[in-house]
Amino acid sequence: MNQTLPAVLTDFAAFLRRPRLLVPSSLRAAEARRGWATLLAMYVGVLLLIVLPLIKAWQTAFALPSPDAFGKIPPMLLVPLVVLAAPLAEEIIFRGWQTGRPRALWLVFSALLGAGAIMAAQHSGSDAGVVLSLLAVLIVIAAGWIVLRKRRAAPRWFEAAYPVIFYLVAGGFALAHLGNYPAMSLIAVPMILPQLWAGLVLGFMRMRFGLFASILAHGLSNGAAVLLALVLG
């Protein structure tokens, strides 16, 4: 490893080789803010100089359409949704629980269980079933939240499986953005390379500097994308 690189970049490379649970700091310390800014600059630089040219070449080679996600959003809601709401929601959903805190894992489990129950109730056409399912989920969440209030350490199974979990989440985050394109196909999968790169960097940011750090970086990158889209028409 090149020891002349900033420590945060060498740590990022080591983390990608073997993702592991970290104890996040915050951005309160000047050193943490410098590390976060260095990582953000690296993320944007690789995105602009390597990732975007690659997907542009792929798009041209296969005559693929450009993403139309921004076109689906009313102009007045573009900034609030894309720059504020989307980064907040996506970071909480995809990375908020990645420290393995039992309470956070319980929320994820309850949300998945609740979504399945509500979908089943909707499929049966029962409005009462939907309401009862939602009520049951809220009770389960509250009960687990109380029972797990004193547990902070991540379960051993989560720690052991974390390398796989990290890459599955990064891949899932990227695949979720296939909906940005007018038509989904296997040939369009490489077009979500920017989101995969974002998932890797934001995942490390969340583990190294905390959830707010990844939300802030996500919002700034989305804002830059909106600005670029507006400039290019």
Please state the CA-atom Rg, rounded to the nearest Å: 20 Å
Number of strands: 0
Number of helices, counting only DSSP H or I runs of 4 residues or more = 8
Mean residue pLDDT: 88
Most strands sheet: none
Q: Looking at the structure, what is the overall shape?
A: globular
- Name the helicity range: over 70%
Low-confidence stretches: none
Strand content: under 5%
Helices and strands, in N-to-C order? HHHHHHHH
Going by helix content, strand content and strand pairing, the class is mainly alpha
N-to-C terminal Cα separation, in Å? 42 Å
Oligomer: single chain
Describe the 3D structure.
The model has no long low-confidence stretch (mean pLDDT 88). The protein is globular. The longest helix has 32 residues, at 30-61. Helix 3 packs antiparallel against helix 8 (211-232). With 233 residues, the protein is an all-alpha fold. The protein is built from eight helices and no strands.
